[in-house]
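quick q for whoever's on today - can somebody do inverse folding on this one?? i tried earlier but teh output was garbage lol. tokens:
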């Protein structure tokens, strides 16, 4: 006999002839409990102090209680309130309970793709991932399918019956839409996942990097560095500066390290400073260096002779 989930049929009225009629599936078991036909108060089932004694200088214990409720014969949301008082103050807390009719379908969670998250041609693979929770704890089965793909793309689902499914054969840019279905034998839910696929990417371009001035004489200790950059595909690009080389004892610092144009200060030790700019688009990067030379302070100017 195949196992079936437990189902509460609710309160039934006994007929005038003391008979009760209930429609049951084949090979099922029915348990009947007597009921007064009205809402019953909660039944307190546990109440205790933990620990059940107190020894000074300790000054606190944990109180706990539990109760049972019957008469939940209609589907919907129930709210129960527990009140706790100490003779001076009283606090209340609500307990929320959802009552359903029949078996509930699973709930899909965390439907996404990874490895990679962002698919860029000629890379033509990714992994679809999903999960599900079932209220009754029923076994959940999964099924992936292709809803829509750009003309000319020929995707393959390598494990469509698994929660994790590798996709191969992505050959065209555009949105690829996949569907994950999850079922527990009584109900099925589905969710669509759109995986955007980007065309072949070209790396960003750093046309030039300039330091102004490129040569400093102490006590001057700062310079402006700027760059001209672009992306051949029109992608949004980000910039990041770092100090690649500096004399011992110096502490070069950027005013805006993530900006295309910035000022670097702290060039207080003579020698060669090398700064590197990295430009990144959605998948590729480019780097370029710029140098600043710091010379020692020259001889002091002679005062003009009196005339």
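ok took a stab at it. sequence:
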């Amino acid at each position: 006999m195949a196992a079936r989930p437990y189902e509460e049929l609710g309160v039934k009225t006994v007929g005038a002839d003391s008979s009760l009629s209930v429609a049951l599936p084949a090979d099922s078991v029915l348990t009947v409990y007597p009921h007064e036909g009205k809402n019953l108060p909660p039944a307190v089932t546990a109440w205790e102090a933990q620990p059940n004694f107190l020894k000074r200088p300790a000054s606190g214990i944990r109180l706990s209680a539990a109760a049972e409720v019957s008469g939940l014969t209609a589907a919907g949301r129930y709210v129960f309130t527990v009140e706790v008082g100490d003779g001076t103050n009283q606090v209340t807390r609500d307990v929320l309970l959802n009552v359903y009719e029949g078996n509930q379908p699973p709930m899909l969670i965390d439907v996404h793709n990874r490895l990679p998250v962002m698919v860029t041609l000629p890379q033509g693979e990714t992994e679809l991932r999903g999960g599900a929770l079932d209220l009754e704890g029923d076994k959940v089965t999964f099924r992936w399918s292709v809803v829509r793909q750009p003309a000319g793309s020929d995707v393959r689902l390598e494990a469509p019956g698994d929660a994790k499914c590798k996709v191969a054969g992505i050959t065209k840019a555009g949105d690829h839409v996949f569907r994950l279905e999850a079922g527990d034998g009584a109900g099925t839910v589905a969710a669509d996942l759109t995986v955007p696929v980007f065309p072949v990417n070209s790396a960003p371009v750093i046309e030039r990097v300039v330091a102004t001035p490129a040569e400093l004489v102490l006590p001057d200790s700062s310079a402006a560095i700027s760059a001209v950059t672009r992306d051949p595909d029109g992608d949004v690009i980000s910039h990041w500066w770092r100090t690649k080389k500096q004399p011992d004892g110096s502490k070069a610092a950027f005013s805006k390290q993530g900006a295309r144009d910035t000022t670097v200060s702290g060039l207080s030790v003579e020698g060669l400073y090398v700064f590197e700019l990295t430009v990144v688009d959605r998948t590729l990067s480019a780097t370029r260096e710029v140098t600043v030379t710091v010379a020692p302070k020259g001889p002091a100017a002679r005062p003009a002779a009196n005339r």
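fwiw Residues 214 and 292 are 5 Å apart (CA to CA). also The chain is about 0% helix and 45% strand. so keep that in mind when u check it
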